[in-house]
Amino acid sequence: MKGNLQIVALQLLLALQVVVWEWLNEHGRWRPYGAAVCHHIENVLKGDARGSVVLGQVDGQLSPYVIDLQSMHQFRQDTGTMRPVQRNFYEPSSAPGKGVVWEWENDNGSWTPYDMEICVTIQNAYEKQHPWLDLTSLGFCYLIDFNSMSQTNRQSQRKRRLRRRMDLAYPLIMGSIPKSQSWPVGGSSGQPCSCQQCILVNSTRAASNAILASQQRKLYSGAAGNAGTAGTLTMAKADQMQSPLSNSNFPCSPVMPSLSSSHGHHALTINGQNNLNRPGTQRITMGAARGTIPPGVPALPVKNLTGSGPFHPALAGMTGILMCAAGLPVCLTRAPKPILHPPPINKSDMKPVLGVNGMCRKTKKKHLRRGKNPEDVVRRYTEKIKVVPDEDCTICMERLVMSSGYEGILQHKGIKPELVGKLGKCGHMYHLLCLVAMYNNGNKDGSLQCPTCKTIYGEKTGTQPPGKMEYHVIPHCLPGYPDSKSIRIVYDIPAGIQTNEHPNPGKKFSARGFPRHCYLPDNEKGRKVLKLLIMAWDRRLIFTIGTSSTTGESDTVVWNEIHHKTEFGSNLTGHGFPDPNYLDNVLTELSAQGVSEDNLKD
């Protein structure tokens, strides 16, 4: 009897599974929701396996997000962004089953949780008292040191702190992972809640249900094998569907928690796959929806994971949902992913660029100073004015007939506050003392730049940190240049310490996304642009240290107003080809930095 009880207990233990809900980020990584959010999703799933989950009810930071359980997608209401979600399973003895969370410290000083797969691996090594853990087998070049509780990048040798904390354990379900079955059709009837949030959620579900119904009809009719537009989700009329209304369909309805799931044996089925319960399976099978879009059905591009799309994503997403809810046919299309890199290339296939010496340049830590003091630089490029016009000095905003606004603040022998000079090329006039002040606040490289028209006097240099620039020809053509091979440029700048020419001397700066790969067509104009880019690199003008416009991170290496093409085989992000005006535009940007075709003749 005792043995039988032990067997039953073991069977019950083996039947328990920890559920972790995850969403797919723009880098193709599945990121876990928190334990409290997962409990909330499971509770809604028990009440209505075809329902929608309002994440803001359990986490205020997730208030814009709604998960549609039928299509297994997360929808952001304010932007229209749709991301796949999945329901993953782990052992009860694993990290999520115990409520253990492993996190690393980001650049803002806050803590970011690891992907659940990595978290489980780290916890297993920690429990076995391993001194360290190499994450290379999981595709990450990091080394975890449990003694110092740090993470080290094996390439850059950068260290970050990590920590282990206890949180709410993730939800448990009883029973084996369900077999592939369709969703229940029936449901109790009831009056829907009339609040605005529930109306929006119900409309979201109607759109998702229409997507699923269309996919299943195409599958049953054999249309899945027909040629068509890949990645197209065709929406059917809402009145062709039967979507039961019950209290559990709406987020305002109370849901009672329970350990076991009354609907645990149900699963979303598309193409014979168990899409709800298969870990790592993307929830919408695009192949099932490959069919010809009916004539007269509008196509609304929904924002894809990279953020591209010709329409505002929120307008496209919400318009599609509302049109579907009203019984109108509509088609949601997803843009393809950008092609950032060419196919793999052997080193022997990389050739020097015609007319360009070498295949690599390195920058020095600092350009040599010309040994000229500010007064000499200003006098070199200006002419004295005998008759001063009655107009403003655009540096100090005082009248030119008056003394410089820097009088009493800045003093230089030989330059009186009332002296006015005219720049030789452009003819704009300023107080000489103001030009000295402007020079002192710049890079002090022996050059001047007119603050009005941006004309450069002398050779302008920048504050780019030390690094390496490589360039070579590869045997692949860019879109729009079928008759030319391609020039690939590889920039590599390591992280380091800021110097006196940078915003925060003595402080560390980061270098994200290096090495950076950029592309040009291997034709006459492309080679001309490369030569000027090499000149700009030598003058340290390609990069600078500042605040990233995309991430908001400060004290990091950023582009310096000379645009590059970093997308090889497409132009979905605006940084690729075809772009017939790019070469002319970049020549103009280089000229604005004082790097022009005239320099190639010198």
What does this structure look like?
By secondary structure, this protein is α+β, with helices and mostly antiparallel strands. Among the domains are: 100-166, Signal recognition particle alu RNA binding heterodimer, srp9/1; 374-457, Herpes Virus-1; 467-599, Enolase-like, domain 1. It is 21% helix and 21% strand. The protein is built from 11 helices and 31 strands. The strands form 9 sheets. Strands 1, 2, 3, 4, 5, 6 and 13 form a 7-stranded antiparallel β-sheet that branches. Strands 8-7-12-11-10-9 form a 6-stranded antiparallel β-sheet. Strand 21 and strand 22 (429-431) form a beta hairpin. Helix 5 crosses helix 6. It is elongated. Mean pLDDT is 76; it is low at 176-192, 223-294, 296-311 and 367-371.
Ordered list of secondary-structure elements with their pairings:
Blueprint: H1 2-15, E1 16-24, E2 30-32, H2 35-47, E3 52-54, E4 65-68, E5 73-76, E6 82-90, H3 95-98, E7 100-105, E8 111-113, H4 116-127, E9 132-134, E10 142-145, E11 150-153, E12 159-166, E13 172-174, H5 196-220, E14 232-235, E15 269-270, E16 273-274, E17 299-302, H6 313-325, E18 330-334, E19 360-362, H7 374-381, E20 382-384, E21 420-423, E22 429-431, H8 432-440, E23 448-449, E24 456-457, E25 468-474, E26 486-492, E27 496-497, E28 508-509, E29 516-521, H9 524-538, E30 543-546, E31 556-559, H10 582-592, H11 597-601
Parallel strand pairs: 17-18
Antiparallel strand pairs: 1-2, 1-6, 1-13, 3-4, 4-5, 5-6, 7-8, 7-12, 9-10, 10-11, 11-12, 14-18, 15-16, 19-25, 20-21, 21-22, 23-24, 25-26, 26-29, 27-28, 30-31
Helix pairs in contact: 5-6, 7-8, 9-10
Main location: cytoplasm
GO molecular function, one term: zinc ion binding
Signal peptide: 1-21
